[in-house]
Design a protein that fits this description.
- The protein is an all-alpha fold.
- It has a domain at 33-73.
- Helix content is 89%, strand content 0%.
- The longest helix has 65 residues, at 8-72.
């Protein structure tokens, strides 16, 4: 019988190293996802600010139209 005998200590070290590599990869993925989420939030904030500016312009336009209408009556 050809059986491969693995030293328990070296097998545990191998499992430990595999676990560390997996942990490092997981942390890397979390950092990448966090950066993407922050970038998305920045874009949403910029678009929200643009919407607020447009709403203010609309309000000013409405007020000027109301003034014109009241002047004519």
């Amino acid at each position: 019988m050809n059986t491969m005998i693995i030293n328990n200590e070296s097998f545990l070290y191998l499992l430990f190293i595999i676990g560390l590599v997996g942990l490092a990869y997981g942390v890397r993925l979390m950092v990448i996802l966090e950066h993407r989420i922050l970038a998305m939030e920045r874009r949403h904030i910029e678009s929200d600010q643009r919407i607020e500016q447009l709403l203010l312009k609309m309000e000013k336009t409405e007020k000027s139209i109301e003034k014109l209408l009241y002047k004519r009556t």
